[in-house]
Design a protein that fits this description.
- The complex is a heterodimer of chains A (765) and B (429).
- Chain A folds into 4 domains: 3-36; 53-228, Penicillin-binding protein 2a (Domain 2) (Alpha-Beta Complex), CATH 3.90.1310; 344-626, DD-peptidase/beta-lactamase superfamily (Beta-lactamase, 3-Layer(aba) Sandwich), CATH 3.40.710; 636-759, Trypsin Inhibitor V, Chain A, CATH 3.30.10.20.
- Chain A is 37% helix and 21% strand.
- Chain A is built from 25 helices and 31 strands.
- In chain A, helix 3 (89-103) crosses helix 4 and helix 14 crosses helix 21 (521-537).
- Chain A is globular.
- Chain B is an all-alpha fold and 429 residues long.
- Helix content of chain B is 69%, strand content 2%.
- Chain B is built from 15 helices and 2 strands.
- A two-stranded antiparallel sheet of chain B has the order 1-2.
- In chain B, helix 3 packs antiparallel against helix 13.
- Chain B starts with a helix and ends in a 6-residue tail after the last helix.
- The chains are: A alpha+beta (765), B mainly alpha (429).
- Chains A and B meet through helix 1 and helix 2 of A and helix 1, helix 8, helix 12, helix 13 and helix 14 of B.
Chain lengths: 765, 429
């Protein structure tokens, strides 16, 4: 083969290799990248090319059952800075200085921020309109001074406001910096409330500024849904007012709980863990809590096992430990504040549980009219001696309940039997969470679940019969009490009634069906009667509310914990009642954890608070009052408008309204009256009519009503020239005044109404 | 025997050989024109020595028009796409969207002039100066090592002020092609020996590669190695040497692989082949350009985003006007556009080969084949780099990548091929 022929041949080969192999490989590779991998590569490219600015969706509003706003989001702004646009340090210093002034921030830190070479630094979040105006001014200044417009910008943001601050704080809950629910309903219904954030999608280049593309896409934010709670702000306020007073009066160490629930629907009308916290400042602890933290010292370190001997440590180490202890104490205080005791804490229900034990005994026919139970002041079972508060002798089951007699209930429990007891325990919903729509619900702590016969011994059954040694949550207790009294149905407690969309249209009505019937309506009816008797004549007297048919049961349970370190185990005082007893509508559980003021029985601590709450709540909830004659004589009546009438006319009218009249002054016409028009005073109270200017300056002194009976109080009031409005247990013969709304010795106008609260000694159960 | 004497002797042999072949071809050829031209050419030539007919004033005469048209097409498309790819970086970094376009147009115009001018130069002059040009190449390679380093610590550029610079390797590539064409035509009958076929080429390649290693400029070593193999193959060395060379290469790679050095080297090569997988920050930074090139190519799909619609050129793909310009082409014109451009490149290579094979003498053939192979190789390697099949080592795309000296070198080489075409026996229009 000649050299040229070889060259030609080899060149053709070369051409084939270059074109077929080389270009073939290249085309194959490009085809693979563009067609096979193309989608994925394009997705990744677009991911880096598009800047995605979220638009916050407005969080839904939380309303009370009547549409009052409990939680609402309002527009605020976020200040962001694009420091990459700065040209020199003079500009940086100016902007840092002005921002620090306006937003109350650290100037040195801001100056550091201005030196970053980025287009997005978040300067401050959630600024309000005053600061926003200042920032807009600053933007103008910068634009005039340096001809720069993009250095500072404002982004829309939302802030959560809670108009009633600490009201129902543990139920409503609060949100975090990013508008996410952190506790309560805010957490539980976060998905409904949050809405869908929108987006502004823009194309951006490699240095995060905008590309000259027509690639702007706005996806509007969809505002969150609103919630209508079953909670009634008025009821809740009444509850919290009295609970706070109860905590002060009884020096309650571990907070108190009150739940008001519709017995038939499971709607929670009020749920208070008192004292709560300010929802607008959830991270602020109370002054007392702060004081305790400030007092942390070496002693505290030893007590709380931080160190055995602080003196062995260097000063720095000691201070460090103290700082650590303070930080831990603060976070413990915060989580304690946020904890919804009504669903998250368990307690021994104590004697309140006797209504459940008796219900099961009646339903099972384990007791009847012929049963009798003997109490000799204590009851021995194996080696354990269980004491009773009294020596009740032989009792029927009714008397056993009214006496709140532990030995009698041990016998009733035995009559029911461990297996039945366990079955009813489950049936009343104690073995499962109630499923209330609130976060952090705790489960009960029963003896042992499996193999109840082997694991629940006779002693266990004995103490369980009167509500000791197993722990349940307050919400479980009140739900069971509803089942006892509403005809036997276990209802679903819930706090949200309706979900509304952003325009207020109903998205969903939440109505719950009873889970099951636990006892017959006959047994339930009998229980209501027994509980009403208990309030009228026996241990529950302090829970009585004039004009209403209240049924209830007191409870004092041992915590078996010494909360304040005085060497004595502390108690939980509770009262669970229903009204009206002939046709129950509302149940109310009042519960004080560790009252330390001396009284710790449910009848002394919780029942009067229950009565105070119900006396305001029941009229508000339109529960029709049903007075007996005795009550009618003490019933408050509304004063009329007598001002402007002639003295004679006014006197006649007031008398006709059922009031006595005292005329002050020499005039012929009534210029003023006390109590003013529309005030509530008892029938037979005194209305003072003023007929001239001089007489209206006259004052009387409020007397002390302490420890006086109802009739004595009326007499003393008449003597002193004031009116009294009587509340609490006023029908019992041994009722004594325990508090008055205007302190003794106060100078007031004649006829001023003083509210006096009465209570009886109560039973020790 | 002086070089010139030998050259004339060789030319004579070349001439006679090709004449014999052509007359044989013309006898079998049914196309009258060729036969007629052959006769005309033959009659115009002195019997002793070929007189190459150069027509100074008539470009059309003797110049291969299809080749010129292909070059013009590539130049126009290349300029357009380079402009499209470069205007965002030009805007953001230079403050003038037309910064690269303006300069490249000037270079293109000068380049065209250079090409036309060079096409008039009888390529046989290079025959004489091949040794000298090889000497210049060595000188340039040594000179860059002495000159201050460029960005990244490499010694590649010889600058003339700040305005114009040329890569020493550009000279080397041309010098080696020229030398091998010279050698292959001169010792065409001894190319199947080791002494003439392998040894001189091996020595030139090894010494040049060594100097390039010092720069360092690995991609150029790869290119000149492949070019040397191509030239030797075409020049007629024994195939066993290629097989031996191949076995040796595989052996070296195996040894490197067994000792783990290969993996190490691959990892060192800027995360070659790993651009889409995040390993660590360093690797992610290193593979930034390749990754964004892949994003651009992939975004194009079949039909592309449309001319000027690339997004990756907005400061995502660094230096889109240079080596990675074709990634933007793929993004804007899609697989179809890319394939069409590759087709034009393939036509260029094909036409170059046709011109070369029809060249009057062996030197012209070898020179043309060498130069056109260089273009084809450069295209293939460039695209394999931007698609992450080869490490990112700086191989520009002819006619597309921005750069004055490389465009001028390219146009000069095209001029040389055109010069060959003036004498070659091919239908010119």
């Amino acid at each position: 083969m000649g050299a040229n022929q070889r060259l030609r041949k080899r060149t053709v080969w070369l051409l084939v290799i270059i074109l077929a192999l080389g270009f073939g490989a290249v085309i194959t590779r490009l085809g693979y990248l563009q067609l096979v991998q193309g989608e994925e590569l394009q997705r990744r490219a677009v991911e880096q090319q598009l800047s995605d600015t979220p638009i916050s969706a407005k969080r839904g509003t939380i309303y009370d059952t009547n549409g009052k706003v409990l939680a609402q989001s309002a527009s605020v702004w976020r200040v962001v800075m694009a420091p990459a646009y700065f040209d020199n340090d003079e500009q940086r210093q100016f902007v840092a200085k002005r921002l620090a002034e306006i937003l109350d921030l650290n100037e040195a830190e801001l100056l550091e921020d201005t030196k970053q070479n980025t287009y997005y630094v978040s300067v401050k979040r959630k600024i309000e309109s005053e600061e926003k105006e200042e920032i807009i001014k600053l933007q103008k200044e910068i634009s005039e001074k340096y001809n720069k417009t993009a250095i500072i910008s404002l982004l829309d943001d939302y802030k959560r406001y809670y108009p009633y601050s600490d009201l129902a704080s543990s139920v409503i809950g609060f949100t975090g910096m990013d508008d996410q629910g952190l506790s309560g309903v805010e957490y539980q219904y976060n998905g409904e409330l949050t809405g869908t954030p929108g987006r502004i999608v823009t194309a951006q280049n490699g240095i995060q500024t905008e590309m000259p593309f027509d690639y702007n896409q706005n996806i509007d934010a969809i505002d969150g849904n609103s919630l209508v709670l079953t909670i009634d702000e008025t009821v809740q306020s009444i509850v919290e007012k009295h609970m706070k007073q109860g905590i002060i009066d009884n020096d309650v160490h571990e907070r108190g709980v009150c739940i008001i629930m519709d017995v038939n629907t499971g709607e929670i009308k009020a749920m208070a863990t008192v004292n709560g916290f300010d929802l607008n400042n959830p991270y602020t602890i109370s002054e007392e809590q702060q004081k305790e933290i400030d007092e942390i010292d070496n002693e505290y370190l030893i007590e709380h096992d931080y160190t055995e001997d602080p003196s062995k440590l260097s000063k720095d180490e000691r201070n460090k430990l103290i700082e650590q202890a303070k930080a831990e104490a603060e976070s413990a205080a915060l989580s304690k504040n946020w904890r919804n005791k009504a669903v998250s804490d368990t307690y021994y229900p104590g004697s309140v549980f006797k209504m459940v034990t008796l219900s099961m005994a009646l339903q099972e026919g384990a007791v009847d009219e012929d049963s009798s139970f003997f109490c000799g002041g204590s009851y021995s079972i194996y080696n354990d001696e269980i004491n009773c508060t009294g020596n009740h002798g032989t009792q029927t089951y009714q008397q056993a309940l009214w006496n709140s007699c532990n030995p009698a209930f041990i016998q009733i429990g035995q009559a029911v039997g461990a297996e039945n007891f366990w079955n009813y325990y489950q049936a009343f919903g104690f073995s499962e969470k109630t499923g209330i729509d609130l976060p952090g619900e705790s489960a009960d702590q029963f003896f042992k679940y499996e193999g109840i016969e082997d694991n629940m011994g006779p002693v266990d059954l004995a103490v369980a019969s009167f509500g000791q040694n197993f722990a349940i949550t307050p919400i479980q207790m009140i739900t069971a009490a509803c089942a006892v009294t509403n005809g036997g149905y276990l209802v679903q407690p819930h706090v949200v009634k309706q979900i509304l969309d952003k325009d207020g249209n109903v998205v969903k009505n939440i109505s719950t069906e009873p889970k099951r019937q636990v006892i017959s309506s006959e047994v339930s009816k009998e229980m209501c009667e027994l509980l009403e008797e208990n309030v009228i004549d026996y241990g529950g007297k302090n829970g009585y509310v004039a004009g209403y048919r209240i049924g209830g049961k007191t409870g004092t349970s041992e915590k078996l914990i010494d909360v304040n370190g005085d060497g004595v185990d502390d108690y939980i005082a509770s009262f669970c009642g229903i009204a009206p007893a002939n046709n129950p509508q509302y149940a109310c559980l009042v519960f004080f954890d560790a009252p330390l003021a001396g009284n710790y029985y449910g009848s002394q601590v919780s029942a009067p608070v229950f009565a105070s709450i119900m006396s305001e709540v029941l009229p508000y909830l339109n529960v029709v009052a049903q007075y007996n004659d005795d009550e009618l004589s003490k019933i408050d009546t509304t004063t009329g408008a007598y001002t402007g009438m002639s003295v004679d006319d006014a006197t006649n009218t007031a008398n006709a309204d059922g009031f006595n009249v005292t005329v002050k002054g020499e005039g012929s016409k009534v210029l003023a009256q006390n109590p003013p028009t529309g005030a509530s005073i008892p029938m037979g109270g005194t209305v003072v009519l003023y007929t001239d200017e001089a007489s209206s300056t006259e004052k009387v002194t409020v007397p002390s009503f302490a420890d006086y009976s109802v009739s004595d109080a009326n007499y003393i009031a008449a003597e002193a020239g004031v009116n009294v409005s009587l509340t609490g247990q006023v029908t019992s013969a041994d009722s004594k005044a325990i508090s008055q709304s205007i302190p003794e010795g106060t100078e007031v106008a004649p006829g001023t109404v003083v509210v006096v609260t009465f209570s009886t000694e109560g039973v020790h159960d | 025997m002086s070089t010139i004497e030998h050259t004339s002797a060789e030319r004579r042999r070349d001439y006679e050989r090709s004449r014999a072949r052509r007359s044989a071809a013309s006898r079998t050829d049914r196309r009258g024109t060729r036969t007629a031209r052959d006769g005309r050419e033959a009659s115009a030539m002195p019997p002793e020595r070929k007189k190459i007919r150069f027509s100074l004033l008539s470009i059309g005469k003797g110049l291969d028009v299809p080749f010129v048209l292909i070059i013009l097409a590539l130049l126009v498309i290349g300029l357009t796409m380079m402009f499209s790819a470069s205007y965002p970086v030009a805007y953001y970094e230079m403050g003038d969207s037309y910064y690269y376009l303006k300069r490249q147009i000037i270079f293109a115009v000068i380049g065209l002039a250079v090409m036309i001018a060079v096409s008039y130069i009888d390529y046989h002059y290079y025959h004489r100066f091949s040794a000298l040009i090889l000497g210049v190449s060595y000188f340039a390679l040594v000179l860059v090592l002495i000159l201050p380093a460029q960005e990244g610590g490499v010694h590649r550029w010889i600058g003339i002020g700040d305005i114009f610079g040329i890569q020493a390797s550009e000279i080397s590539k041309f010098a080696i092609i020229l030398f091998l064409a010279h050698w292959g035509s001169r010792y065409y009958d001894r190319m199947d020996t080791f002494k003439y076929g392998i040894l001189p080429a091996g020595a030139v390649l090894a010494s040049t590669a060594f100097l390039l290693l010092l720069e360092p400029h690995y991609s150029c070593i790869v290119i000149i190695s492949i070019l040397t193999v191509i030239m030797l193959f075409v020049s007629g060395i024994k195939l066993k040497w290629l097989i031996i060379g191949g076995i040796a290469l595989v052996g070296i790679i195996l040894v490197l692989w067994m000792t783990g050095l290969l993996t190490y080297a691959m990892e060192r090569m800027d995360g070659w082949g790993q651009a889409l997988v995040y390993k660590d920050n360093d690797q992610w930074q290193q593979t930034w350009q390749t990754r964004n090139s892949l994003y651009a190519i992939g975004s194009g799909g079949l039909f592309g985003l449309g001319l000027g619609q690339s997004r990756q050129k907005y400061l995502y793909l660094p230096e889109p006007q240079n080596d990675f310009v074709f990634a933007i082409v793929c993004e804007e014109l899609g697989l179809i556009g890319a394939a069409l451009i590759l087709l034009i490149f393939a036509l260029l290579v094909w036409r170059g080969v046709v011109i070369s094979l029809r060249a009057r003498d062996r030197f012209g053939k070898l020179l043309g084949i060498g130069l056109i192979s260089h273009i084809g190789l450069q295209v293939i390697l460039n695209i394999l780099v931007i698609t992450d099949w080869l490490p990112n080592t700086g191989i520009s795309l002819p006619f597309f990548s921005y750069g004055g000296s490389s465009l001028l070198t390219l146009m000069f080489e095209m001029g040389v091929i055109l010069s060959v075409s003036r004498t070659s026996n091919v239908e010119k229009s």
